[in-house]
Amino acid sequence: METPTIDNSLATDTAIVRRFLDGATPSAHLNDADELEYLEKIAQLMTEKKAKLVAHYYTDPVLQDLAEATGGFVGDSLEMAKFGKEVEAEILIVAGVRFMGESAKILSPEKTVVMPTLEATCSLDIGCSIGKFSAFCDANPDRTIVVYANTSAAVKARADWVVTSSIALDVVEHLMDAGKKILWAPDKHLGSYLKKTTGADMLLWNAACIVHEEFKARGLENMRQLYPQAAILAHPESPDSVLELADVIGSTTQIIKAAQVLPNAEIIVATDQGIFHKLQKLAPEKTFIIAPTAGNDATCRSCAHCPWMAMNSLPRLYDSLSNEANEILVDADLAAQAMVPLQRMLDFAAENQLKVRGKA
Fold this sequence. Notes:
five-stranded mixed β-sheet, alpha/beta, Rossmann fold, 43% helix, four-stranded parallel β-sheet, single chain
């Protein structure tokens, strides 16, 4: 029997996404002297306030370096959540987007969690409102609900499982082996990849990441002609046509690991260009090339960089830490409900070795 596919009636409200982008203020540009002054003041405050910084790979390189230099952490959303839960700190500063701050607070309710800005959100979060999602779940009560980490605390609380891109394939295979039918949200491209790879019976929500959706297969084919010896690494939030051309498909962490072990001297990368900072630090002998998007003069809204991640800046980080402003608060009952699928993810990750998925 043919398995269900995307319900197009649940398409992302692009007008809402564009409204959020129109209101987004870009990160402040600093000269070297001002940047150094902010770094020194922030480092001193972090010591005084017993604070730790966790930053996503897609944030400004200076924030990534600051996190690592002060005993914090840089990683993908699963690694950020685990570190934030385990680290000894009174304050967690989350440099990323809002759902990451919410996850940190749910996992560490005893800690104060602040962010450089509360404006930084995610098109996947926007495209999966709790009202419409709950109705979708209610209409399909026979399915196990699996949601991507890029969702609100309320959506997580409605789910049976929360997953990140690094663990999604393993969880879906686990559920399929147990005979479960899956309701997946919100990323349609990641959902399609999971369904095609595993053969699981999956009903997919229809939303997408504005960064990864802009990668173009035709441009990637042209790029491969220019760099015939290059490996192509792609994030599974990218469209199917892009993933079909990839040599390795994986999360940000899996892409970084693959880039280090592959023999190719040139590597084309289809994910947010913020990852290039870590790639170049860990594999300085290699050349990294950003995969083509639609371009500034076409339909590109991201040009391979998340506009919300770009809102994290040193001045904003300093203001939030010095004033303990932009605090993330999650209702206790809602947090307790969301903690169940989040903890299930963390327990599963601890028990299963996650793999980089490459083509045979």
